[in-house]
Write a structure and sequence with these properties.
Largest sheet: 7 strands, antiparallel
Strand content: 35-45%
InterPro entries: Fn3_assoc_repeat
Radius of gyration: 34 Å
Mean pLDDT: 85
Low-confidence stretches: 7-21, 474-482
Helix content: under 10%
Number of strands: 40
Number of helices: 5
Structural class: mainly beta
Keywords: Signal
Protein name: Chitobiase/beta-hexosaminidase C-terminal domain-containing protein
């Protein structure tokens, strides 16, 4: 009797083991599981755990797996039957390229939604044709190791809807599908389990669960939530989501898998720039700290680094950000790598004119901390020493020092600077001690060859923007004394002869020349 029980136990354990090993999922991760090609030009292939992926024009050693336009890609296995292939793409299905809509399959069923494309069927070889280039961060291949595997059904429909949406459930050939819409387990007949025969319509937020049966075998349970909500935006640059939309999408589990645009008001500004030149801050719809989301490791315009706190959005600023919606420790976020799109209604160039302006002392502080901007910026100050005109006659440039208060203490060198619009200074127009200037140039720490000492300065070829509040040199003709032979200018700033008739400027004064 004991021997019989022992044998029965062994058989049961073997049966459980066989069921547990009925399928396996092999994940190919770009950058980890590599082929040999970094660009799309020739054939490439990658293999793992008995599965091979071959493309006649692909790149499997790039940052993403790339299937070239017009290429044919074949998945094959010798260890079982391929029942599902999932492409996790870098673009959504509504994009013209790189998304899951860029390929089609000759056999089986291929569907896509968002940034994910899913093939289901049963084959040892599956072939795809690319009508446009597809890029995927990873590819998941499911294989059945025996003949008793039932593929998980696929639930499709509009994940977000305003009034109603139609739900469709598909599964392998010859299967029976059961589903629930009230949270009951579809494998438990004691609940409100329904038999799927055709697509159906829902008009409220609903979680659909489904299971497929064939030959007494059951698939894994598929689950998909459909959210009924009239959103305030569409997640596009033209119609961004607001914070209320983002929270609702994430909490319902239907947040898009792609980057979206989100508008909000800064409720908690960043306190510092991280060592990675990004910032963390919060936004809400009304600027208050209730119902806010976090912008985590956020970047500047066009995903550039933050280099100075003057660039950082302040409390109350209106921003539009682009990033992926996630949730971490119960905090809804725009995940790492999100970036600034607009600030108080201004795009990159417009906002930089306001944010990247330094006084002389602020410029010195930024240089001392090696936090100066990567590009040009505006610097204001008062010329505090006599101007060096060594380069005036030959090169048309001036070298001078500026400070906040016009004293020599805490001054910044402006090296070989040019006049308005980058024009040359002349002996008739140049700067002098005491002038208040605004210039556009690059802040650098100059290190003389053979030394390690840093000299903070504005790099050569900066441009004059204004002097003493004026933006043209006509209002600032430098003279030593009243001179009847001083140059004469018309109102356009052009030098004219003494025979010129009309309103002219000489010695800094306007008069009518007859």
């Amino acid at each position: 009797m004991k021997k019989v029980l022992r044998m029965t136990l062994v058989l049961i354990m073997a049966l459980v083991a066989n069921v547990a090993m009925a399928q396996k999922v092999v994940t190919f991760t770009a950058g980890t599981d590599k082929g040999s090609q970094g660009t799309v030009s020739v054939a490439d292939n990658v293999a793992k755990d008995g599965i091979s992926i071959s493309c006649d024009k692909g790149a499997f050693a790039a940052k993403q797996y790339r299937l070239g336009q017009g290429s044919k890609t074949t998945f094959s296995t010798t260890t079982g039957t391929i029942t599902q292939i999932v492409f996790n793409c870098t673009a959504s299905a509504d994009a013209e390229k790189h998304g899951p809509n860029c390929i089609g399959a000759a056999t089986g069923k291929y569907t896509y939604e968002g940034m994910t494309g899913t093939w289901t069927g049963a084959a040892t070889k599956v072939e795809f044709t690319a009508k446009a280039q597809l890029r995927a961060s990873s590819i998941e291949v499911t294989i059945a190791l025996g003949g008793d595997f039932v593929a998980t059904p696929v639930i499709s429909g509009d994940a977000i809807f305003a009034e109603t949406t139609t739900v469709t459930i598909t599964a392998g050939e010859g299967t029976t599908i059961k589903y629930t819409i009230n949270g009951d387990d579809p494998t438990d007949d004691r609940g409100e389990v329904l038999n799927y025969t055709a697509p159906f319509t829902i008009n409220q937020t609903t979680t659909v669960q489904a299971v497929a049966y064939k030959g007494g075998k059951a698939s894994e349970v598929a689950t998909k939530t459909f959210l009924k909500k009239a959103l305030n935006g569409e997640g596009t640059m033209e119609k961004p989501y607001n914070v209320e939309d983002v929270i609702a999408l994430q909490k319902a589990g239907v947040a898009p898998a792609k980057n979206v645009y989100v508008a909000g008001i800064v409720s908690q500004p960043a306190e510092a720039i991280s060592q990675y030149n990004d910032i963390n801050f919060y936004i809400s719809d009304d600027g208050n700290t209730e119902n806010e989301i976090m912008a985590y490791n956020s970047k500047y315009f066009k995903e550039a680094n933050y280099t100075d706190m003057k660039q950082v959005p302040a409390k109350g600023d209106k921003v539009v950000l682009c990033g992926k919606i996630i949730e971490y420790n119960n905090i809804v976020e725009l995940g790492r790598g999100n970036y600034l799109v607009s600030l108080n209604g201004k795009t990159e160039g417009e906002a930089q004119k306001d944010t990247l302006t330094f006084t002389a002392s602020e410029a010195l502080a930024a240089l001392a901390a090696d936090k100066q901007p990567q590009g040009v910026c505006y610097i204001t100050g008062t010329i505090c020493e006599e101007v060096d005109t060594t380069g005036l006659a030959k090169f048309g440039n001036l070298t001078y020092k500026i400070s906040d208060d016009g004293t020599a203490a805490n001054s910044l060198i402006v090296f070989r600077s040019k006049s308005f619009d980058g024009a040359k200074y002349t002996k008739d127009f140049y700067l002098k001690k005491g002038d208040q200037v605004k210039i556009l140039g690059q802040l650098i720490n100059y290190v003389k060859e053979g030394t390690t000492e840093k000299t903070p300065e504005v790099q050569a070829n900066s441009k004059l923007i204004s002097v003493n509040g004026h933006t043209t040199g006509v209002n600032h003709v430098t003279i030593d004394k009243m001179n009847a032979n001083a140059p004469m200018y018309n109102l356009a700033g052009q030098r004219v002869s003494k025979n010129y008739k009309g309103v002219v400027i000489q010695n800094g004064k306007k008069f009518f020349n007859k």
